[in-house]
Specification:
201 residues; alpha+beta; 10 strands; five-stranded mixed β-sheet; three-stranded antiparallel β-sheet
């Protein structure tokens, strides 16, 4: 229903344009600095914002998507800058962005899906802090590692791509998809909106 594509420039947008008919709702942010992104949706987007929480060249997409049952679902795509010692960048920007999102989502009552390439592993202190603050869930827990990076180096693989969800959802399946020409494997998550559970007692 919703497709997030990262590191897109104008050539990538053109390459993905064959999907536009299938995903008529689109937010495209081509950039030449590895931080362009797209969010494509089969479901109506009621509202969408491009946000720059920490750095003015690293965007996030924050959208409200209407589900078939009428509820609005908040979908947030992020791609914080990773630590790059060669370029003199530490983890401060990445950690700050995830912490700011965690604080914001702590007050979110709507169904929410958050993630993409966080340039961080699931067991890091920053990822665990984000989950603790936001009260979101990691669907991979109890289901496996889902190592998405590096797709071309089987001896060096880590789970850098994440999808976190609010408790409004149950998880039907999590899939690591086949090699698609990127240095990351795509990841797919199938969610079921289940805001209430009737007691059987």
């Amino acid at each position: 229903d919703v497709l997030i594509v990262l590191e897109v420039d104008k050539k990538w947008v053109a390459a993905v344009s064959s999907l536009f008919a299938e995903f008529p709702e689109q937010v495209t942010l081509p950039q030449d600095n590895w931080y362009g992104m797209m969010m494509l949706s089969k479901l109506p987007m009621v509202d969408q914002q491009v946000r720059y929480l920490v750095q003015d060249d690293v965007p996030s997409i924050d959208a409200h998507v209407r589900m078939p049952d009428g509820h609005l679902m908040r979908v947030i795509a992020v791609h914080p800058r990773p630590p790059e010692p060669v370029r003199g960048n530490d983890a401060t920007a990445r950690d700050a962005e995830l912490t700011l999102w965690g604080l914001e989502l702590a007050n979110e009552s709507r169904p929410t899906v958050f993630g993409s390439d966080l340039n961080d592993v699931a067991w890091s202190s920053t990822a665990r802090l984000f989950l603790r603050i936001s009260e979101m869930l990691d669907p991979r827990r109890g289901r496996g590692m889902f190592n998405t990076f590096h797709a071309e180096r089987f001896w060096m693989r880590y789970p850098l791509d994440h999808v976190f969800v609010s408790p409004h959802f149950t998880i039907s399946a999590v899939h690591l998809l086949p090699f698609a020409g990127s240095d990351h494997f795509p990841i797919q998550i199938d969610l079921r909106h289940a805001p209430e559970r009737k007691s059987t007692r």
